[in-house]
Amino acid sequence: MSKEDSSAETKASDGETSKLSTRELLQSKGFYDVLEGRPKDFPPELSALKEHEKRGNVDMVLLALENLGMEYMKQYCFSALKRMGDVSAIDPMIDRASRRDKSAIEVLGKIGSEKAVDSIVSYVDNDSDPQLQLVTLRALGEIGSPLATQHIANKLISENEQIRSSAARSLGMIGDTRAIGPLSSVVSNDPSSFARYSAIWALVQIRTNRALEAAKSYSNDSDYLVQSEAIKASELLGSLS
Fold first, then answer.
1. Does the pLDDT value for residue 38 go beyond 80?
2. What b-and-e string marks burial along 2-32, b requiring 16 or more CB atoms within 10 Å of the CB?
3. What is the pLDDT of residues 200-209, one digit of tens each?
4. Are 116 and 108 in contact (CB under 8 A)?
5. Quick one: pLDDT at residue 40?
6. Is 193 exposed, middle or buried (0-12, 13-18, 19+ CB in 10 A)?
7. Least enclosed by CB within 10 Å: which of 99, 102, 164, 190?
8. Chain segment 100-112, per-residue pLDDT in tens
């Protein structure tokens, strides 16, 4: 056997040992106990994950996330955690979010706990990674905590059109009345029709009389989408009176 063949064999052997070690670890934790008969999916870990999600076994999904190396399996774990929305996943996701893990931030948004705000709100100000900002803005909007309002409102003047638009939508999801003035300013002055529409949509979502009055004033706007939200605001005001 050549030196090269010996090296290749060693690498294959090491890889197999590594795989077996992971599987043995999962086995020892009872990960596969939910499987009955022949797994429906390949690899069997996927079948087990689907069953754990169905049963609400967050600990087992987290166990798989930590130990399975295949990227598509990790993404399945994150998707499962988003669908489950279980608060027991908060601390592990906060830990991952501290390492700028976008998927973990998305999970925190779906869980919706205010506990996560302090851990991710600083990413709103991180102009070096717009995608991280966008994911964080969305998550903060889903969490809905007014603790994030000022941080998000500061991004309404970002040079990035997508950031301005996403910030406006997040403020609408939070519903903090302190955002009415800044959002009105975006509708009046922003050069982007995309950002203007997001801002007036946010005003309608806030749904107080003051927010709806501000949105209503754009019923003759030249932009159809802005105009449609203004008309919706007028209708809502009528129903509230």
1. no
2. eeeeeeeeeeeeeeeeeeeeebeebeeeebb
3. 999 999 999 9
4. yes
5. 77
6. middle
7. 99
8. 999 999 999 999 9
Amino acid symbol at 184: S
Instruction: Write out the two tokens for 234.
Output: 């007028």
DSSP state of 39: -
Residue-wise pLDDT for 53-71, tens only, equals 999 999 999 999 999 989 9
Give the DSSP letter string of 121-175: GGGGG-TT-HHHHHHHHHHHHHHT-GGGHHHHHGGGG-S-HHHHHHHHHHHHHHT
Instruction: Render the burial of 51-84: b for 16+ CB within 10 Å, e for the rest.
Output: bbbeeebbbbbbbbbebbeeeebeebbbbbbbeb
Residue 133 to residues 34, 163, 226, Cα–Cα distance (Å)? 39, 7, 25
Round to whole Å and give the CA distance between 88 and 65: 14
Q: What is the mean pLDDT of the chain?
A: 90
Q: Is residue 195 within 8 Å of residue 223, measured between CB atoms?
A: no
